[in-house]
Design brief:
- The protein is of the alpha+beta class.
- It has three helices and 20 strands.
- It has helices at 68-101, 109-141, 189-196, and strands at residues 8-12, 15-38, 43-48, 55-56, 61-65, 144-146, 151-153, 163-164, 171-188, 208-212, 221-228, 238-245, 257-274, 279-281, 284-290, 296-300, 306-307, 310-312, 322-326, 338-341.
- Helix 1 runs antiparallel to helix 2.
- Residues 358-362 have low confidence and may be disordered.
Length: 362
């Protein structure tokens, strides 16, 4: 019976290329500004001026609380101030009169002292009345609630007609600013020391980062890292980093989980192989190589990140070795094979079986 010829496998040589190095994290989006709109005075809510979920500008009216009682208190405080001011005028005139009279001994020194005390008291009454009026004006202004920032407003938490501000500052709505948006995430202290450096954020930072939503295959959104916390969490050994994302289309809302990618440099001579050529067993990842004699060898390798269809191999492989790309399921270590390089047409069986018998296609 004739001997079966060795099987033919497709082989390739590793590609040496520059590869950007980065680390991936999971982060959350946080509003740059978020303001709780609360009732600062007690009263019945009369009007709601906004559409729930709409954009609002700073100064836009949001709510109105009944103001009749506060207007009356303000008018009363104004009238009291007018009365105190009149008393101060009278006290000043009385003081001036006795100060003239004392020059001719027409009044006693005690009378001068009494009038001066009355004048000082009138000044104090005026100051107190002015403070009361200022507080009344402030309480009256609190009945008209406006947006303190530009942003998007939530739903209303209280309907018109309800009593608010009774014993507590009732939460009425929330306004969040969506442009820009913060993204915060945690990194290990080792990543800080080895990749970023403790002083990476001194004097501001221009280090870019990229984020993606859960359903996005790539990282299309770019921002700038701008903050690093001043201490490491003792319980987890992690450090908070924060970046700023323009969010011009307002696609990100506060509280979203996002994938974060932080570039840390470039590896100029990374060895890459087709990811589909890698095998896995209990010992980890491996490649099947073909040595110059045409014999299959199993080689454990370390793996790095995926770059398109290529996988970075940081250890276990040199650039001049040939690995099996197709046909690995038909062979085993120690078996002799014929080889054809990727992209070539298989030739007729020949005496020479090693990968060096066929010129490499770079």
């Amino acid at each position: 019976m004739p001997e079966m010829p060795p099987p033919t496998v497709t082989v390739a040589r590793p590609v040496v290329r520059a590869v950007d190095e980065f680390y991936d994290f999971i982060g959350t989006t946080v509003a740059v500004e978020q303001v709780d709109i609360r009732a600062r005075v007690q009263g019945f809510l009369e009007k709601v001026h906004f559409v729930e979920g709409s954009r609002v500008k700073q100064g836009d009216p949001l709510f109105e609380i009944e103001r009749t009682a506060y207007q009356a208190i303000r008018d009363q405080a104004y009238a009291q101030l007018q009365s105190r001011q009149a008393e101060r005028v009278r006290a000043r005139l009385d003081l001036e009169r006795v100060e003239q009279a004392i020059k001719t001994n027409a009044v006693s020194q005690q009378e001068v002292t009494t009038r001066r005390a009355q004048h000082d008291q009138a000044e104090a009454y005026v100051a107190a009345a002015e403070a009361t009026l200022k507080q009344a004006d402030l309480d009256l202004s609190y009945t008209r609630i406006v947006s303190p920032i530009d942003g998007r407003i939530s739903r209303r938490y209280v309907d018109a007609g309800n009593l608010v501000g009774a014993g507590q500052q009732t939460l009425l709505a929330t306004v969040v600013r969506l442009q820009p948006m913060y993204v915060q995430f945690y990194v290990s202290e080792g990543f800080l020391g080895e990749r970023l450096g403790v002083g990476a954020f001194d004097g501001g930072s221009t280090r870019p980062f990229f984020i993606a939503r859960e359903n996005e295959p790539d990282f299309p959104h770019a921002g700038i890292l701008n903050y690093m916390d001043n201490r490491v969490d003792e319980g987890t050994g992690t450090l908070l980093l924060r970046g700023e994302l323009p969010n011009a289309d307002e696609a990100f809302l506060p509280g979203m989980f996002v994938r974060v990618r932080v570039p840390v440099g470039t590896q100029a001579d990374a060895i890459c192989v087709h990811d589909r050529a890698l095998g896995t067993d209990i010992g980890g990842k491996f490649l099947l190589l073909v040595d110059p004699e045409g014999v299959v060898r199993r080689r454990p390798v370390g793996i790095g990140r995926l770059v398109g269809e290529m996988r970075v191999i940081p250890s276990g492989l040199s650039a001049d070795e040939a690995y099996i790309l197709q046909g690995a399921q038909f062979v085993f270590p120690g078996m002799k094979v014929n080889t054809v390089f990727e992209g070539q047409t298989p030739a007729a069986p020949a005496e020479s079986n090693g990968p060096d018998a066929v010129p490499a296609q770079e």
